[in-house]
User: Fold this.
Amino acid sequence: MPCTKEGEAVLRLLTEGAYGMPAWMSFSCKNDGASTNHGESFVKEIVPMICKCPSDVVFAFGVNCTSPDNLERLISDAYAAMQQQQGQDCQKVILAYPNSGEEWDYDGRCWKTDVALDLTAYAAAAKRWVKSGVRMVGGCCRTTPEHVLALRQALLGST
Assistant:
């Protein structure tokens, strides 16, 4: 999701419906390492909104479709903010599903592939995300099955 308003709408549907299982929510963020694509503060807007929701409705939240380079700050800031939610027991799982690091060139109408992380760097970054509290890791736009295999090998060992 790119914005708080969509997150609020999804939370409303989840809390009003009887879905019988908890969900996870993920937000796409700008390359500033601090805000959603719509421009809201991830820490000041998203984290409190998610923390107010019971864990049997939303058990996890995080970031997707964002450059891996910007993920670490978003994750560490979100984790710290989650711990500081006053009067709330905000025990959510944090997830990270970044893109490959490639950037869309609007003028050229193509992907800038020279900025993508290679598989080794992507997997090494994922190890850092897990160290900082991430418990669900994957890939979004422009990641491949090879990225997922590299993640598996880095995080679980080769099998």
Q: What stands out?
A: The longest strand covers residues 58-64. The two ends are 34 Å apart (CA to CA). The mean pLDDT is 90.
